[in-house]
Amino acid sequence: MTVMFNKVMTLIDEANNQDPNTALYNGQSVCKEFLYAIHMSDMLKRFKPSADELMQIAVHGQHIQRWKSPRSDFEMNKQGYHQWRSALYIFHASRVAGLMKQVGYNEAEQNRVYNAVAKKNIKRNPDSQLVEDVASLVFIEHYMLDFANAKPDYNEEKWIGIIRRTWQKMSDEAHKFVLAGNITLPTPLVGLIDKALE
Fold first, then answer.
1. C-alpha–C-alpha distance, residues 57 and 62, integer Å
2. What is the mean pLDDT of residues 95-114?
3. Domain span at 85
4. With b meaning 16 or more CB within 10 Å and e meaning fewer, what string describes 30-43?
5. What is the pLDDT of residues 105-153, one digit of tens each?
6. CB crowding 142-173: b at 16 or more within 10 Å, else e
7. Is the pLDDT at 50 greater than 70, yes or no?
8. Per-residue model confidence (pLDDT) at position 1
9. Under 8 Å between Cβ of 63 and 41
10. Tens-place pLDDT, residues 143-169
11. DSSP secondary structure letters along 118-176
12. How many domains does one find in the chain?
């Protein structure tokens, strides 16, 4: 890997290690978004080990400093949720591209990562789809169960809808990766996942 790659990955980690929110990982308290970046990079190595360094940067920085753009800054309705998501894509993409510029990546390289992190032209841009695939795989393996536990009011129908929407975001390649048993499904939700994918 290039010197620039190592520098920008370190800068992403340093930024995410400012997260005031923490989570337990291997018995230790770590910054939440730092941990998310670890999960993303680990999943990329499993799902697409041939990914080039620009896509490794995009995947690692996909949630950079997410706590700085909280959901509460937007209206607590469906429209507000979509506005928040759109703003997040631009925030993360701009932050990562800025760090790349800081360490010496050229404009074309910055733009490629920006478009991937900003989820530009998903289903048509393979870079954007790769970031979406890895994020969906990480959500299923590491975060879906916690999300379920935080939403005790969601009924089965609502959960089936969430699982199906996640599945629809993913590529055929990611579907095959899941169905081949390459990720660990949250045990309490396996029945719901099976029902959603019937």
1. 8
2. 97
3. 3-197
4. bbbbbbbbbbbbeb
5. 999 999 999 999 999 988 899 999 999 999 999 999 999 888 877 777 8
6. bebeeebeeeeeeeeeebbebbeebbebbbee
7. yes
8. 62
9. no
10. 988 887 777 787 888 888 888 988 999
11. TTTTTTT-HHHHHHHHHHHHHIIIIIHHHHHHT-TT--HHHHHHHHHHHHHHS-HHHHH
12. 1
58 token code pair: 């995009």
Residue type, 62: Q
Instruction: Calculate the average pLDDT of the chain.
Output: 92
Contacts of 143 (CB under 8 A, 6+ apart): none
Residue 107 near residue 48, CB atoms below 8 Å: no
Provide the CA 133 distance to its chain's centre, in angstroms.
Answer: 8
> Which amino acid, one-letter code, is at 83?
Q
Token representation of residue 16:
């995410």
- The DSSP symbol for 42 reads H
The H or E element containing residue 27 is none
